[in-house]
Each structure stands twice: as structure tokens, then as C-alpha cells.
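Bump. Still looking for Transglycosylase family protein C-alpha cells.
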Amino acid sequence: MLPVVEIPGLTKAEADQRAIDLGIDSPTIEIIRESGGLFTVRATYPEGMIIPGATSAVADNSAPFELTGLSQAAVDEEVAVFKGSGSTFTVIPEAGNLFTIRISPPKAPALVEPPPTVVPNAPDLDGYVLCLDRIRTERRPGMGFDRTVSRYQAYFNRAPIADVFGMAVERQGPDDNGSTGVARHRRIAAGIYPLFTHASGATNKYKTIGYARPANISMRPWPCIGVEETGSRSGILIHCAAGYLMSTGCINLTSNVISAGTNLLFSDSWARVTALIDSIKEHLGDRFPNSNNTRLPHVSLVIRDGALV
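Sorry for the wait, here they are.
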């Protein structure tokens, strides 16, 4: 477990200065927006450091871990998702044509900046709407594909929800819900999609209801929301991620994506997905389903390409 220090109630200028001051010991620094225009600085230190005043401890989401008893197809699926993050792998044969995969996740970013505030531009749609406005594509040197960067904002009956906004990453374009999109792992098409609770069956990788707590990249299932009516594309989810990208078509939520060199922090991404789930629960109340793989009533994803450059 990694020691954590949190300093709440700061102005942005104070938070920026504290981030500089704390950075001398090489922690991961998160600047987290609070309500009322204030910020919390959270410093997560390397394992083994003795930090006076540490307020909590969290899992090391950059530590190597193993998944055992996998079929070759399951190994291929894990590699497809984790490879895009910048993770490295070792595959070890077991008896019975099964395998163990040892995954070394990407290093946590040194600084996680809060996302820019989204200027409200609600779709003309009632109910709970998660709106994703694509703004650019970019490629990190050494990666084999672009990632698409978006801003997201949630609305309820066209009113913005104050605490559910940020940025997101997907695979490269062009938009494609057809068989070529499947084969080439392209982003899904702009449009309006119904959202569902989700559980990924025997693989136990993702769940809306019953996800693993707390945030730990080595613990499944991860939190998610299902995106349906996607043509030939299947298994499209909104889920958490680390590194450059963890997707063959899904949407990863994150804080500010400053450049192609920006890595996602797993715990931040996890918190954003769970905040979305909790917000939908709050707004639906008794209408929120009590089982997975069920339509979320009057809950939609809107993807817009209008700002994409």
C-alpha cells in the first residue's frame, strides 16, 4: 500500500504551489476540484516511504500482478486491452492448455491536473444525458494508433450536473460501427445511444452493480456502464483505465489530458466512472435497475464530433 497525504480547502494558486512543494519527494500529485471553487492536493508516495501525517493508504496501481488460469483467447483479450495503456506482459504456460499472464502496468503520472470546466451545451434531450464532445486526436511517439480526446459533461433534463464532468479518451477514427470498426478497433460513431447496467458474464471483468472496491487495477470486476445499439460493435463500455488508453472501442474517463504524453491515473479514472454510476442512481432513484444488463430508463450517451480537429 502507498501512503497518501491530502491537503483540502486550497485556492488554485495555493494548490499549484503545494503541488510544487510536495513534488520534491517524487509522489504522484493530484489536484482535485472541490465544490465552491476550492481544491484538494493529494500526494501518493512510493512504497516504503515513511510520511509523517499520512492520512490513508492506497493500492499501488503500477505494481505488477498476475492473472492465472486463462485460455489463449482470454490472454489475447487481456493483451488487447492492456497493451494500449503502455503495459508490458509475460505469458507463462500452465497445464491443461491454460496460461498465466504477468502484467506490469504503466507508471503513474507525476501530476494529475483537474479537467477544464465545460461550457454547458446541453443536447435537446430529456432525462439523464452523458454528453461527449470530441475535440482532437493525438498520437504518442512509439504508439501504433491515435487516441481521440473528448470533454464530457452530464445533464439532467438539460441542466448540467455540477460534479460529473471531465475528459475522456477513445481509439482512433474514423467513426465506425461496422465490421471494419471491429477489425481495426476504431471509435464508435457520433450519435445517441441508450445506456445499460452491465456485467461481462463468466469473465467477470466489468460490472455496474457489484464492482470491486476500492480502486485496484489488479482487482476485477471494474466499474462500467454499457453502451448499446452500436451496430456491429459489441461490448462497448464506459470504464476506467490507466496509461495511454485501455480500449478497443470503449470510452475511458479521466482528468485533464494536456498532451499525447499525458497518462491516465487508474484511481482517478475509477473514481470518475463510479461518480457517474452514483449520479445516475441518485437521479433515477427507485427507477435504477436492481440487476445488470438492464436498460437504464431515460439515460443516454450523446457523442458529438462538431469540435473535432
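The chain has a mean pLDDT of 93.

Edit: fixed formatting.
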